[in-house]
UniProtKB/TrEMBL annotation:
GO terms for molecular function: DNA binding. SUPFAM superfamilies: lambda repressor-like DNA-binding domains. Gene3D superfamilies: lambda repressor-like DNA-binding domains (1.10.260.40). The lineage of its organism: Bacteria, Pseudomonadati, Pseudomonadota, Betaproteobacteria, Burkholderiales. This is DNA-binding protein. Keywords: DNA-binding. Transmembrane segments: none annotated.
Length: 118
């Protein structure tokens, strides 16, 4: 099969319930990439309906499209309003601690038998 024969995937089509949207956004925020967060919010807005989200967030639809587009640069206040309109909240937590390095076992050494005393 050629890549050109593959069906284009649109994540907005599978984000059909609150739980999948919550997990999708949580993963985007864990990535620590502002563009990834912006794209994820744009995808969720598309899944939920941009007009409905604009109404619930109090942001004009055109402004929401612009802010969440690939070339947009949303203010933090816009992101907070969108997240709240989705029925979610942004929570700050410390990062998970890095796993402790494991001690490497010393390589086994061959033991020599002690000579028996006569």
């Amino acid at each position: 099969m050629k890549i050109s024969e593959l069906k284009e995937f649109d994540a907005a089509e599978v984000l059909t319930d609150d739980e999948s949207i919550q997990h999708y956004l949580a993963l985007a925020f864990e990535d620590d990439d502002p563009r990834m967060i912006q794209r994820a919010l744009g995808t969720v807005a598309k899944a939920r309906g941009m007009s409905a989200l604009a109404r619930e967030s109090g942001i004009k639809r055109e402004s929401l499209y612009r802010a969440l587009s690939d070339t947009g640069n949303p203010e933090f206040g816009t992101i907070v309003k969108v997240v709240r309109a989705l029925g979610l909240q942004i929570t700050v937590t410390p990062p998970a601690p890095a796993p402790a390095p494991t001690k490497r076992a010393k390589p086994a050494t061959a033991r020599q038998a002690k000579p028996a005393h006569a």
